[in-house]
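Try this one yourself first.
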């Protein structure tokens, strides 16, 4: 098996790369090239097979080259985990156009570009599995996270459309909707003095009373990218400690 994971230099993507490496070759793609190399090094040192690419998922030429290069080196892609993401907070009245574009480009455009390039080969081979990282916030509104909510809902919407369009080719496409997971993104664009209170507030809003671990999300993705999930398609699966129940 060969799996491409974006945003795999850190957090959820990294935990998933380390877990899946036990049964798959891993292509690690991240705009943080040094972080990507470190994860690939850890996998290779542990007896797995991994390759790192420094790629911005919003760049069409870079994404096309990524998929072509890694399929040449490690073979056809069986699985894709579209996971790169960022967080920007603030009142909608203060969002700048370039911030809106960065949010939508990183999540919606990035997911689309990677999926399109990967799906071409999957369709030819009539097999494939894709998981896209959406969020709990795709299905609930959250103040001061307008652009993030919009981007994550776009990913969920595209997941449903892809699931229906590619099911005839035996390709399954699902989304995950994590709750608050203890990764660097929860600290991103926050003042240092705000971080502890914000982490505590996130833990408190979770019925299980704690933040999730990246490894707990990795376990969900591992399941979805396996035959154990062979009849799960077009779903939003939520490792969220019970934060959103609907
Ligand atoms: N941590 C949470 O609470 C949480 C909850 C719901 C959803 N998510 C989503 O999970 C995904 C992973 O986030 P995480 O929590 O592991 O955070 P993280 O910051 O640890 O990891 C995100 C990774 O994405 C990479 N990235 C960002 N923009 C990129 C780009 N344009 N091209 C390539 N790589 C890029 C970063 O360099 C980083 O390595 C994101 O999509 C995030 O929105 C996280």
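Now uncover the answer:
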């Amino acid at each position: 098996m060969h799996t491409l994971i974006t945003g795999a230099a850190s957090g959820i993507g990294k935990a998933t790369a380390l877990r899946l490496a036990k049964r798959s070759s891993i292509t690690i793609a991240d705009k943080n090239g040094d972080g990507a190399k470190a994860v690939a090094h850890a996998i290779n040192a542990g007896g797995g097979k991994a390759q790192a690419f420094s790629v911005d998922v919003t760049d069409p030429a870079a994404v096309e080259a990524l998929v072509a290069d890694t399929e040449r080196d490690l073979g056809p892609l069986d699985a894709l985990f579209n996971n790169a993401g960022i967080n920007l907070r603030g009142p909608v009245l203060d969002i700048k156009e370039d911030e809106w574009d960065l949010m939508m480009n990183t999540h919606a455009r990035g997911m689309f570009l990677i999926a399109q390039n990967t799906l071409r080969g999957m369709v030819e081979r009539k097999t494939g599995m894709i998981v896209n990282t959406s969020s709990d916030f795709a299905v609930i509104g959250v103040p001061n996270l307008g652009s993030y909510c919009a981007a994550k809902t776009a990913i969920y919407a595209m997941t449903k459309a892809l699931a229906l369009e590619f099911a005839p080719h035996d390709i399954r496409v699902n989304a995950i909707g994590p709750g608050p997971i203890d990764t660097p993104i929860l600290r991103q664009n926050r003042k240092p003095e705000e971080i502890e209170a914000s982490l505590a507030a996130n833990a408190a809003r979770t019925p299980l009373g704690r933040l999730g671990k990246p490894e707990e999300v990795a376990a969900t993705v591992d399941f979805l990218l396996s035959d154990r999930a062979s009849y799960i398609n077009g779903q939003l699966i939520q490792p969220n400690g019970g934060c959103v129940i609907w």
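Discussion: The pocket of nicotinamide-adenine-dinucleotide is lined by residues 6-7, 9-13, 30-32, 35, 55-58, 83-86, 106, 110, 133, 135, 178, 180-181, 183-186 (CB under 6 Å). The first helix runs from residue 11 to 20.
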